[in-house]
Each structure stands twice: as C-alpha cells, then as structure tokens.
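User: Structure please.
Assistant: Input sequence and predicted structure:
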Amino acid sequence: MGTNRRIASIFLAAIIMCFGSFKTVQAAEEDKLKVSHSYGFESVYKWGTLVPITVEVDNNLKNIDGELQIELPVFNPEMGITNNDNVTLYTQNINLPLNTKKKFTLNIPISRNITSVKMNIVEGKNTLLSKDLSLGTALNPEDFIIGTLSDDFNSVSYINKVSMDSSSMGKRNFNTKLVKLDENSISEDANVLKPISVIIINNFDTSKISKAKYETIKKWVDNGGMLLIGTGPSYNKTLSIFKDNFISGDIGNVSSIETKALYKMLDNNSTSSMKLDALNINIKDSNAIIKEGTLPLVQRIEKGKGVVAVAAFDLGLNPLVSWSLNSTFGERLIGNNLPDYYNDGNAYSRMVNGGGYNISYGLGNIPELPIPKASNLIIIFFIYIVIAAPVNYIILKRKDRRELMWVTVPALSVIFAIVVYFSGSTTRVTKPVANVLSTIVIDAKGNQNIQSYGTVVTPKKSDIKIEAKDEMNIRPIVNLDYYDNKQNANNSKGSKTIYSKITTSTKTTMEFYNTGVFGQYNFIVDNNEIKKGALQSEIKFNDNKITGTIKNNTGLDLKDCYIITSSAYVEIGEIKNGETKNISEPIKNYAGNSYQMLDNMFGRQYGGSAIQSTKQIQEKRVKEQKRMLMQSYFDSFGGRVTDPVITAITDSQVTKDILVNNDAVKKYNKSLVVSNVELSYINGDKAEYPLGSIVPKVSSLSNKLAYDPGYGFIHGDSGEVEIKFQVGDKVKVESFELKQNQSNNPNGPNFQPLTNKGYIFNTVKNAYEECDYNNFTASQDKASQYVDKDNIIKIKIDTTGLNQPGTIPQISVKGSVK
C-alpha cells in the first residue's frame, strides 16, 4: 500500500512539474514574441462593417513561417443567435524571421458590439502565442465618422457635428466622431472605408496618396461617401492628385474677397461679412451652393451615389478658425450637402455589406435545379401502400403464411426505396453548385455598377474551399447582429470548434468544415471588370398611359422589364440587346410601397395551397427569386421608389467561375438591371401629374412623431407635420387634387388615412387655412392661391389624438407649360 502511495505521489509531482515547465515556456515565448495592436480608425469603428485590425509582432523567438489568426464567434442570421462555441478564423500567412518586427492588417467583418477578439500565431499544428486583443465600444451603424486628411488636423476640428432636415424623419442629429487620416491609414479596399461618412481634405499634399488608394477614394464616393475639399492658398497641395476627370475645371488665381455668403447660410437676414482668400475655380458639372455674386465659394458635384463638395477657400485658416459660428457653419455645410439617400431615414443600411434576408433567401432558391414530379411520387407511394398492406396481406392469407409479413414488408420497402431513388436520379444534385445574384445599376453615362452575391450549395457533408476565378475576388458577408448585440465577455473561454476559415491574400479563400447536407455558404463577389452600356429612353405620361421608346444598348438581353414610378408601373416585357422598343401601356397604380407593388406584379408568394404541381412549384420559385432581387434593391432605399426607373432581369453572365476545392462548379446566375429614366409629364403645352407621382416631402415634424417614407405613414404621439409637394418649375399649376392613393392590392398593410384637422397654405393670405386634405380640389380659378413662387404646395396636419399609424395624402396636378 505504501509503495502505491509513493508511486502516486511521484506521478503527481511529475505532472505538476510538467505544467510548471509549460507555463515557464509559455511565459518565455510571450516575452520573446511581443504583440501590440490597433483597430478601426484611431480606435473608432462601427459594428456591422469591415474593421481593420493591425497587429504588430516583435519576434525574438525564432524564424516563423505560419499564420496570424483572429477568431470570431459564428452568428447564425436565421436563428438570430451568436454561438461562441463555433468560431470563424480570419487568417493571413506570415513569414517572420528572427529578430524582426512587422505589421499585419486583417479586415474583419464585425457584426456585433464585442469587447475583444482572440488572436493566435500558429505554425503548423503548434500555437506559438494566443492573446486577447481588446476593442473599444463600437459606434452604431447610423453614427457618423468624419475622417480628415490635413497637415493641421486641429485647424478643421471645428467641423465636428452633423445634422440635417430629413424629409422622412424631420430634424436629425447624428452622433459624430472625428478621426485623423493620412496616406497610410487609407485602405486600398473601398469596403473598409465604408464606415466613414465624410472625408475632409484640407492643406494636405494629396500627391502622397498612391494611385491605388486614390481609386479607392473615388470608388468610396461613388458608393455613397461625401468628399469635402478645401482649396484657397493651399489648392496646389489639395488638388495635386486630381489630374483626371473625377474633378475637372478651370482654375484661376487666389484673391482676397469680402463676403456675406457664409453668414447668410446660417441666417438669411444677417448683414455680417468676413474676408476670405478665395480661389477662382469653376468645376465642370457642378452646382454653386454658396457664392458671392458670380464667384462660387462652394461647389457640389454628384458622383454616383455620393457627393464631392469643393470650397474655394482653405477650411483651416482665419477667419474661419476663430469664427464663433464655425462649428455651426461646418454642421450646416455637411448636413445640407449629404448624398440624397440620407433623406429616406435608412442611410445606415448603405454601410452594411450584406443583402439581408432577401438576398440570403434568394441565393438559396435555385429554380434551375430540377425537382421530382409530384405526381410520380404520389403514384409510387400509392402503389407501395396498396401492395405493402392489403395486397400483401391477402396473398399471404390465401397461402396461410401471414407470419412472413415481417419479411415481405421490409423487402417491399427496400424495393420501393430503390424505385424512388432511380425515379429521382435525373433530378439529383451530386456535386456542389453555385448561385450568383447581382444588381447592375446603370448611371446616366452608361457606367454599370455591379454588386454580386454568391452562395455554394453542397449536397453532402464535406470540407470545402471556395474562391473566385481570374480577376474576381470573394469576401464574407457582414450580418448585422440585431438579435444578439451584447458585449461578448466570454469570447476566449472554453473549447471551440472551427466552423470556417477565411484566408486573405491576393486571392481570398473561404473554407467551411463538415458542411451540412444542402448547406448554403454565402459570400460577396467583387468583380473588378468595368462594363459600360446604357438604356436610352424617351417616354412620357399621357392619358393614363406611358408611351415612347426604349433602346437597349446595355450589352445584355433583358426580360421582365418594367417602368416603375413612385405610384405606378407598366410591364414592357422583353428587350433584346440592340433592340429599340415602342411602348404604349396603361399604368397600374399602387399606393407607393414596394411590397404592395411587388404583390401586384408577382402575387403574394407566401401562403397558398399546400399541394401544388411540379409546374406550380417551379413557377413560384422563379417569381420568388425575382421578387427577392427587386425587394433587396428597393429596401436599400427605404422601400419606396422616388425617381422613375427601368428594371429588368437578365440571365447574361456578369461574373466569372466560382471554384470549389480548386474545380469550377456549375453556376446559376440572375441579375437585376436598374436604370434611372427621364419620364416627362408634359405633352405639348399641357402637363399632367397623376396621383402619387409627386413624392411628398415632410418638411417639418414634431419631435414626438416619425414618418416612414416606405409606407408613407405618420406614427407617434400628438404633434404637427408639414408636407410639401414640389411641382416641376416649368409647369404652371392650373388645378390640383389632394386625396388618398388607394392600393388595388386588397391584401396590403391595413393603414388608415389620417383624419385629423388639416390646413393648406394660402400664399395670398400668407397663412394656413383649414381644409379636408383627403378630399380637396383646387380648380383653375383657385389653384394659384396655394402655389408659392417655388411651385410648392404645402399642407399641415395636426395629429392630436393619433392612436395608430396614418397615411398621408397624395396629390395630382394639371397645368400648362410656362
């Protein structure tokens, strides 16, 4: 017994010594392998975006040829939960000789507000170092980050607030953070710049920015960023990189001017003035938003979804720096010139890399995959039931061998299983397939902006590696983790299973382990190929029809084409590439919400008969996919069409092959094509705007109310809402009518019209007068009383007693050309 105790004691001591030795070795390695890190932009970042995490490794341990890994818990968007037991590894190959120090940057899609991530340095199967990297508190997706490129950051730090008068949400104040940028902190990936809402360039030598990063800035603007450039005496520095047609125009001299324009921007009645050193610069395709006489002081240029604003003066010199109103001026300068999409109240959705539920659902729905005929399966199962039960029983009973049923029934089951197997052999998927859905937005110059999402569907459990072929690349989708947006205190604890691995290099690869049967693995496809080709149109509204011609020069064969306005649509069918199509179609009305419009186009795809034929199922899947593509696009603009567009579906290939385990897989694809279209409501010397074609704008809103532009309804506590209807400036209004635009979809949302006390502004009396805004007609002899000098008709509604969401009225206008 004593011998056994001595052996146990020796064994226990050995274990303790081993663990003690292990800890000593780990401590020694950590001492020789030192790591520091930074994240975001000066430790500022938004959850729901790509976040750059830079790790600096000081290696005094040994030559290292391995991987730098960052772990993130897996978020399941369908379940709405984050699983800390399953992790995705974001990795980068590293080669680090002994006694060297290097920095490595990984762009990590952080979908939730977490306080830390775990970093590993791995060589082969050996983990050389594991460490938690702390992250500060993330900003919300709708918050503002202003990045500044300046040799004197503090001189422009007065531009530190952003607010705007939104047509959908009234006065909006944004939580704003300032960050300092330089030529090194700007990523070559435009997606990393997405969280930055505004970039200011002032008194900075832009020639220090590389060509690749300059292209990134331009792409960032096109995708919806706002670039504010100060010039004045430092214009040679700030404009030095702009040698192409991104910003072009005539540059004169810098001169000292006396101006009241900046004061008047804040208070139109102000008589104060200041002296500025201003550059005489006229920029092509710009609008002067602030000017002194004929000299433009700030010019605005539309670029894709974004905006460039160029000031003729240096933003960081006196008198601006010492001006007591400089912060208010900066706030107004940015707020008044933000890209138009901020008006819909859903601007934060532009910051999200994913396509949301609609894209994910659409990717998983592949109508091209054949399905077994339901009738064949029903017949087979019916025969099986008849033979396995009554026929089998009767035969064995006649032979007085009923005890054999325990043999014959399983045998028949096996036989019919084989029959079912072979009957569905032509519809069976045996290898991974890819499905790619794209949106192609065509601008007025024929530039095609392509955004593609892909998925790989696997028919069996396996490990797969996904990558893109040729010039394309892929990257993970960021899913906003609304359901589980809590700080992750236990990120580094417990054993974990590696769900997937994302390796970034020249080519990104995505590996998924032990995939589920018919698992769906989504990603974003980046196609760097530039394509051009426009939809040219001359169309007008007349006598409740849309008429005219559309010429397809897109290079794509188009089908399921529609012209869609804010309140109506027409179906125009198929237009082959190079074809010019004449149209004359009566409009179909809807109440302004895209969900209602798509219900009218495709029917309600949810619900319905439980038993459907194969053909019915196939047709439903095709319609669902088209609907999801269109809904995803319209949702990114608040669920409502404001400017008329042409939409179409194309089967044309817009992406290259997707590789799974190094082999190209069968790829299915569909693309939604969207192009703005000029729709004229003028016919000869007459003009007619049908009900709902003039989109109402909420110009002021009580802080207890909210406006949803998608559904066009007001909700909240009591207060007042003022609504403007802007008529085209070439039209003399001769009559108009206010009423509700009722949807012809009986299954639409059950929102009731507002029935509270209402008023219409009388320009003659310069005051509001009471009216029934849901049933108000101004005939030719009275219409001019309600139209101001800017061709605006205003109404006001007192929502006292509002106890449910209420829709606001629409307007129809008739008139003549001025």
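The first strand starts at residue 33 and ends at 39.
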